[in-house]
Amino acid sequence: MPTTLIQRHYKYLLKPNAQQKEVIVRTFGAVRFVYNRYLDDLKAGKIMPPMAKDIVNGYRKEYEFLNVIDGSALMNTIFQAQDKAAVMGVYKKRNDQRASYCTANLIRSPIRIVGDRYIQLPKLGNVELVYHRPLPGDARIKKATIMREGDGKYYVSVMIESYPQIPKAAIDLENSIGIDYSSPHFFIDDQGNRIDMPHFYQNMQDRLSQEKKKLNRMKKGSKNYYEQKMKMAALYQKVKNQRMDYLHKLTTKIADKYDVVCMEDLDMQQISQHFDLGKRTYDNAYGLFSRLLKYKMKQRGKLLLYADRYFPSSKTCHVCGYVNYNLKLSDRFWQCPQCKTYLDRDVNAARNIKIKCIQDYKCRRVSGQSL
Ligand SMILES: [Zn+2]
């Protein structure tokens, strides 16, 4: 059972006041400056001190304005530049679009949630935030990334470490759910429940394409064009937030209810072949759904099992095991020629996924393989 620390990110909308905004924007500029300057120095073959702290102190002596900037943010940008340069040999400078910085939770400049309404951040003090999702009780904040996104709003992504909740003493293999991704629904479970993405999602998509049409009619570079772009960025952000919120609620419900979740090990490429093209946002939602579910099951000490991606889950009759190689994608229902069961394509697939995952799990357990 997992006893290792889990690292996770929690993202919140920030509502900095005018003064705090100024400090944040100044820090964006300063980290970009230090990042680019450091890469320049590396490229020029200049001998740099090995410790990020000494590099930052060197720059602070040279550039007065860096002295008022959060030191942890400056050090983090050096780390990022070092990683980039060492791993990829990339000396590409940061462009002006990038507006974020990362700062660590240190004793002398702590990061903490204050009264469910503020977050204390280095050099900023208490910044108002929308605390829509509480951190786990035992969470230790490691660092925070402050960013401004396309919609012009500010966000903070808090990285925490926490211990998984006490693992369940015994996993009840009967308390399981089989999930089959399915278009046009979001997924279908082995009990025949069809889960759709909510209507707001499609509504927002329609709205976005309308706004896009408007944008295309505008003169590029004009004030209207710019304002329309900002409006669209805000809509994109809203749909992103809604989707995230919906998927969080859905995955928490499943992870609380079941001991074992069985699903297909789909890769994204396969998904896009599987479903109508042009539904890329849907595909992202599938990937996100499975990632969220994975960590939530792990956190609860429960099981998430994957069926082999080449397992013919739709073509196999879940009652007798007959494989119908003639099944077409358009066949929503079929009757098994062997046992005569009338099968709903998607529910049958979800049942097969569940049966297959649990069989494989039992086999691995008997043969003593690690999971
Ligand atoms: Zn059959």
Please tell me about this protein's structure:
This protein is of the alpha+beta class. The chain has 2 domains: 6-162, no CATH class; 176-366, no CATH class. It has helices spanning 18-43, 52-62, 71-88, 199-217, 223-257, 268-274, 280-299, 345-366, and strands spanning 6-15, 100-104, 112-114, 118-121, 125-130, 140-148, 154-162, 176-181, 187-189, 194-195, 260-264, 303-307, 333-335, 342-344. Strands 2-6-7-1-5-4-3 form a 7-stranded antiparallel β-sheet. It has a 5-stranded mixed β-sheet with strand order 10-9-8-11-12, sandwiched between helices. It has a two-stranded antiparallel ribbon with strand order 13-14. A hairpin with a 4-residue loop joins strand 9 (187-189) and strand 10 (194-195). Helix 2 (52-62) packs across helix 3, helix 4 packs antiparallel against helix 5 and helix 5 packs parallel to helix 7 (280-299). The longest helix is centred in the middle third of the chain and has 35 residues, at 223-257. It is globular, with a radius of gyration of 25 Å. The relative contact order is 0.11. The structure holds zinc ion.
Describe the structure concisely.
This protein has 371 residues and is α+β, with helices and mostly antiparallel strands.
Keywords:
seven-stranded antiparallel β-sheet; 14 strands; 2 domains; 371 residues; five-stranded mixed β-sheet; binds zinc ion; 8 helices; alpha+beta
